[in-house]
Amino acid sequence: MDHEHQSVVVLAKKKDDFILIRQFRKPVDTYVIQLPGGGLEANESLAEGARREFYEETGYTCGKLDYVGELLPASWISKEITHVFYTSDVLDQKEQQLENHEDIEVVEVSVESCLEKIKQSEYNDSELCYAVLQGLLQGYIK
Predict the structure, then answer these.
(1) How many domains is the chain built from?
(2) Residue 142 resides in a domain
(3) How far apart are CA 4 and CA 16, in angstroms?
(4) 98/126: higher pLDDT
(5) What is the C-alpha to C-alpha distance for residues 18 and 6, in angstroms, rounded to an integer?
(6) Residue 109: is its pLDDT beyond 90?
(7) What's 69's domain CATH number?
(8) So what's the pLDDT on residue 98?
(9) Residue 2 has pLDDT above 70, yes or no
(10) Which residues lie across from 25 on neighbouring strands?
(11) Domain enclosing residue 67, as ranges
């Protein structure tokens, strides 16, 4: 697998809330609500990378992870492929394990509120929107 152009994100549902992150994104010069995730490390499977990134960025661990699909978040400028996982098996929360350059706030948003904010284009991150759409289409979100 070409780890250089692969990333993973996790749509996690804890009771009636999604666990999202808020971080400043310099290219768009604003804070963005997104899914926790990131790049893969050498010899790491997609699921291992998803678990690690979810823990590092949110402090949460998770049990069962379901693969819901992949997307090309910016095919006109990048070969990046983002692999999307879903979990409702959210376990303990500890301290985030952020990298030096990361400043990430964990945000818990109700499913209903998240759907409304996507509908109003307040949440417009492509990975978040794709994950929620797949979650709805595949029956994970009701």
Answers:
(1) 1
(2) no
(3) 35
(4) 126
(5) 23
(6) yes
(7) 3.90.79.10
(8) 67
(9) no
(10) 30
(11) 3-137
